[in-house]
Amino acid sequence: MSDSNLFSALRAAFPQDLDTAAVETDADMVYSWRDLDRATAMLANLLRALNLPEGSRIAVQVEKSVEAMMLYLATLRAGYVFLPLNTAYQSVEIEYFIGNAEPAVVVCTGKNFGWVSKIAFKAGTRHVFTLDDDRTGSLLERASHHSDRHEVAVKAADDLAAIVYTSGTTGRSKGAMLTHGNLLSNAQVLKDYWGWVSGDVLIHALPIFHVHGLFVAIHGALLNGSKMIWFGKFDPKGVIRRMPEATVFMGVPTLYVRMLAEPGLTRDVARHMRLFISGSAPLLIETFNEWQTRTGHTILERYGMSETIMLTSNPYDAKDGERRGGTVGFPLPGVGVRVRGEDGREVPTGEIGDIQVTGPNVFKGYWRMPEKTREEFTDDGWFNTGDVGRIDERGYVTIVGRSKDLIISGGYNVYPAEVEGYINDMPGVAESALVGVPHPDFGEVGVAVVIAKPGVPLDGEAIMARLKAQLANFKIPKRCFVVKELPRNSMGKVQKNLLREQHKQLFG
Ligand code: MCA
Ligand code: AMP
What we know:
By secondary structure, the chain is an alpha/beta fold. 30% of the residues lie in helices and 25% in strands. It has helices spanning 6-12, 33-49, 66-78, 91-101, 113-122, 138-143, 180-193, 211-223, 236-242, 253-260, 285-295, 370-376, 416-424, 460-468, 496-503, and strands at residues 21-25, 30-32, 57-61, 81-84, 105-108, 127-130, 160-166, 174-179, 201-204, 227-230, 248-251, 275-278, 300-305, 309-313, 330-331, 336-340, 353-358, 365-366, 383-391, 397-402, 407-409, 412-414, 429-439, 443-452, 479-483.
């Protein structure tokens, strides 16, 4: 079998001189390409020494660090399946992911070892390691005893490389199974489409537990042998300060909004930059325009999903067209995008419908959910994105909404059904509805509207406090109102559009 391991392709793109800098961190640490090669070998040897069954999942919930990225690369290198988890997830959420994915190895922070290991051992996980963002923990300690030479595990393009959990409309998260072929084909297409060149330097300021920071950004830099300037946490002033040394930046719209609030963001400071890319949530046209005025750069907006990695992109090269604010550009080479109406037929050009996609980037299915997988694919094998949009006569795709009930807040997805479930389980609650309303920083945030059981006094603040003890912080509604009734249609269904309309001015 020929090797389609994504790691092999990334490794082959390392520069000739392995002693040059591959990553420079905001804490002034420098990692060479040789460091990446050796550390991923040691970690891969540690994983192999555990004698895990083929296809084992390595679940990781740690703070962002270069070592955490190396663990991802080592997992690929050893041929196992990487399962990244948002650091905001709390015990009930982690219990679900570990119970569902049954990872052979769990890596967590030292601080969380007590409760995470308890959950993991209960679920049958045999190995729990710790990894902290100051290069301490049992994982690195154990890896240090292993050889720094390792033969990359041979993988087929169809073999699993990662499982990325994405919330479901019913409230239960689904693990999107991504293969080596999905990830590599997408990374190669983006390398060409975004015109990566020798000498490019990427500012990496996104979390590495979701597709944007983990795949799009890291693969982009590595596949081009490009250095990364690495921020453990997004810091607008710090990013602006490093722009004169960099050429490429990737962010969710909130990052652009926060940098625009900095007087230090000028044309001069951004002069060396080649490309600013935005995605994961809609970029407001105001942000797009203001960025152009302030920096002289036109943000390139693209669109993707955990299930598909990147789908469409505004053009990089002016000969292919202009970057149009408010649109997500053209289908990437090799990706099919079509818009279907309620009757399942293709709509005329420019008309709105459900966005369906196909291509080598489209995932293999949801982990252990064949029914769900079948539901999301059409009879002719296209994946239903749950996004609603149109394609104009020039081929630009515009997303106008979502058929899935989803709130995207600062680039993180919040599924109302999940949050409503927790609120409904609280004593004294009869019913609740969570809606997304505009927010100047996060783009959109959740607002909860709750009805109490007859005669029970309820307090919105107390509901939010209780939720905070259970769920990841970004899922907590920013406001919670207790009301007498919810607006309903003639079928008795809550009219969320009316609630959205009612609260749309809450945050100015
Ligand atoms: C933090 N908070 C939030 C969010 N982040 N509230 C709503 N939405 C959020 N996204 C709240 C916390 O609950 C907390 O509230 C307070 O803000 C401070 O938390 P902290 O963690 O310190 O916030 P921060 O560091 O300022 O984080 C904001 C952020 C972060 C940098 C914008 O959310 C972020 O990195 N977002 C990027 C997400 C991303 O990478 N998405 C890509 C998904 P309290 O104080 O009340 O507790 S991949 C994807 O979507 C697809 C495939 C694609 O197309 O890319
Ligand atoms: P997830 O699978 O959790 O990463 O979220 C994917 C969803 O994010 C997509 O289905 C879209 O609804 C949304 N999304 C990603 N990029 C964009 C964009 N540029 N504009 C609007 N929505 C986007």
